[in-house]
Amino acid sequence: MLGFKRNQGTVQAASSFRFPSSTTYSIQASGTTFTGSTNFLINGPSFTAQYNFQLTGTLILIPGANANAIDVGLRLANPFVGTAGATQFGSNTAVHRQFGGNSNQQIAALDIARVSLDSSSRTARVSLISDTTSRTSQLNSFNWRTSLATSIYTIIRGTLTVRFNSNGSLRGGEFNFQGESFTGGGTAAVSGRF
Fold first, then answer.
1. What value, to the nearest 5°, has the Cα angle with vertex 124 and ends 97 and 105?
2. Residue 14 confidence class, pLDDT cut points 50, 70, 90
3. What are the residue boundaries of the structural domains of the chain, listed by start?
4. In contact, 10 and 64? CB cutoff 8 Å
5. 172-to-12, 109, 152 alpha-carbon distances in Å
6. How many helices (H) and strands (E) does the chain have?
7. Which of 128, 129, 177, 187 has the fewest CB atoms lying closer than 10 Å?
8. Contacting residues for 99 by C-beta, under 8 A, at least 6 apart
């Protein structure tokens, strides 16, 4: 929450507060990664804390591509490099274009999460739709440890909450994601604040 850059665009909710859209914020996040006790989330794993992290990143808001009034993206470091806590998430696959990637998943513009807007608290709440829907976007991913040999985890479950000040500047937020390994059995989680 050290600084932000605003571009044009807002989305009007029920009250007079306008949610920013087409906006990019620079953020600093701190949190913890966890390993799970089962190979798949459906088996109800318990999670054990592993590594604490502090990372810089980007929070992006863009006009919604489908059902959402706005879509939200979060990127901390690069999960494909192998840094504990590195996370890339978009409520719609089109958000990943903002991170500079190039994938057919981005072109499809599929909603992976629902974004609910509460203008009275100036809060955007992002919730993944379902395990099945989440699996359609392997671009939503994170690392639980720092290592070149680390396994990348697809985000399957979780939430992202973003809070704004009355002028549209970023007040803060938190995220909590659970995932399954790209390359084989294993579950992990990442949780943090910005």
1. 25
2. very low
3. 10-193
4. no
5. 20, 26, 26
6. 2, 12
7. 129
8. 58, 60, 73, 75, 88, 90
